Amino acid sequence: MTRDRPCHRCGTDNVLAVLRRPGSWTNASGNRVPVVQEIHLCARCDADDPLAGPVVGHLDADGARQPGNAAQLAGDLLRWIDHARPARPDENALKAEVDAWYRGEL
Ligand SMILES: [Zn+2]
User: Fold this and answer.
1) Which of 11, 21, 39, 51 has the highest local Cβ count within 10 Å?
2) Is the pLDDT of residue 101 over 80?
3) Is residue 77 a contact partner of residue 44, using CB atoms and an 8 Å limit?
């Protein structure tokens, strides 16, 4: 369990694990900057996800492994790791907040 950081999607402390992946980001000068991307495995947000959900099912509320098939857990973990991508911001929601801020509504 990673209660020291809330889920970046729902804001709760239901994060069971954090996947850290090397990545890069292009800054305003056009230079690639190395970054570490974090992907949260959240009991609340990911339970119904076809890739993350099976991993959630193997863990208890503290992120410890439930008794069961370790080989199945390993396979589900590898499938999630291979396909997990950082969440992208909702550009429409961001634009709406910026517009609201300029109108003085925030
Ligand atoms: Zn969440």
Assistant:
1) 39
2) yes
3) no
**pLDDT band for position 2 (cuts 50, 70, 90):** low
CA separation for the pair 45, 4 (Å, rounded): 17
Ligand 1 centroid distance, CA of 28 (Å): 30
Number of C-beta neighbours around residue 41 at 10 A: 24
Tokens (6 digits) for 91: 């550009």
> CB burial class (10 A; 0-12, 13-18, 19+) of residue 80?
buried
CA of residue 75 to ligand 1 center, whole Å: 23
d(Cα 58, Cα 70) in Å, to the nearest integer?
9
| Residue 103 CA, ligand 1 centroid: distance in Å | 31
Ligand 1 (ion): which residues have CB within 5 A? 7, 9-10, 42, 44-45
What is d(CA 29, CA 35) in angstroms, rounded to the nearest whole number? 16
